[in-house]
Amino acid sequence: MAMWAGRFSKEVDEGVNAFNSSISFDARMYRQDIAGSIAHATMLGEQGIISMSDSLEIIGGLKEILADIDSGKLVFDPNAEDIHMFIEAELTKRLGDVGKRLHTSRSRNDQVALDIRLYLRDKIKEIKQLLSTLIEILCKLAEENADTIMPGYTHLQRAQPITFGHHLMAYAQMLLRDIDRLCDTEKRMNVNPLGSCALAGTTYNIDRFRTTSLLNMKEPMENSLDGVSDRDFCMELANALSICMVHLSRFSEEIILWCSWEFKFIELDDAFSTGSSIMPQKKNPDVTELIRGKTARVIGDNMTLLTMMKGLPLAYNKDMQEDKEAIFDAVDNIKLCISTFTPMLATMTVLRDNMRKAAAKGFINATDCADYLVKKGMPFRTAYKITGGLVALCISKNTTLEELPLDEYKKASELFDNDVYEAINLETCVKERKSFGGPSPESVLTQINSVKKKLEELNNG
Fold this sequence. Notes:
This protein is mainly α and about 450 residues long. The protein folds into three domains: about 5-105, Orthogonal Bundle (Fumarase C, Chain B, domain 1), CATH 1.10.275.10; about 115-200 and about 220-360, Up-down Bundle (Fumarase C, Chain A, domain 2); about 360-450, Fumarase/aspartase (C-terminal domain) (Ribonucleotide Reductase Protein R1, domain 1).
């Protein structure tokens, strides 16, 4: 019989009971539920709301239940309504009336609000660590490729010469912001709803600051209605995870392109590729394709939470049970994606010669040619027009700016001299882009050091 069955004259319909149950997905919060109950029982004893002996017996019983679940001795009952009722029922079975005292001055509403905060707080730490490892791999690869020239793109058209290290550090910056967002989310999440009870607090002399301290949380929530009905932290986390997945998806898209024969900038290790059931030559980047697909799933989880909450009056409504499957799914998928993406990236082969050959095509040094004239006193727009004419000439003659004879340059402007060839050399083009944040090897190494420093500050903050 359900804990709340006193008001009712008949058993709940089996179909309704199954529909109402959440044990299948909220059982994962058993550690957090027990931690919250231990803090609550400690406070009850200290405040004299229950006897100290009952408090200690309850704490001992909860620790035994935790050990039995961890060891597999105690298995979750699939017929239980939720993890909270399962643990309380097991405690009562073991301790009798003493176990029944645990729920004094507490509701499942503030209990579940606490559990999910504690659970997601733990998961944020795990995700931050996974992202930190990925950023460290990016920094290592960027350092190894600080002078690996490749074409930079706009509109997926070759635009200007950059380095592969510079390209990688762009993603390091994105992921660094993702960690920063998770840190912000964790700060707002780490407040204590316990003691809000069902919605209106309690007449017992509880000490919410004590449970807050025991649970290593920042402060108690200041409004009991808000304490049980707030799910901002779920929506905020889902949003942060969605943005992070978008970053992983964009990176995945580029890896898919770079693996293709049309680019052939990198080759993935065989351990992170799959083949075709019919085409023996195929080597498919399935990992990155799945990350692209799972990004849609995480974004969908975010939309589920936003839509679920948008019409709910205060305080608790059963709709809010739907928060867990959505946010758990988002957490599970981003952890899976980062855990697979990181070793895939660490083991890929960078085909530097192919990147350099691609950079030599497409007139990506045209801006440098125009800048050459500007540095000799010509207005930029005039230089831009002259360089555009030279590019058109090269196309008509099937040649490049590097191979165009000096007399052709002279016809366009007397400012051109032999030093133009050094100015438009790709290595020079990259090396001289020393502006803050630019692609020069020197700048890339500065970015790497900065990212490492910021990463350490975020993880220690």
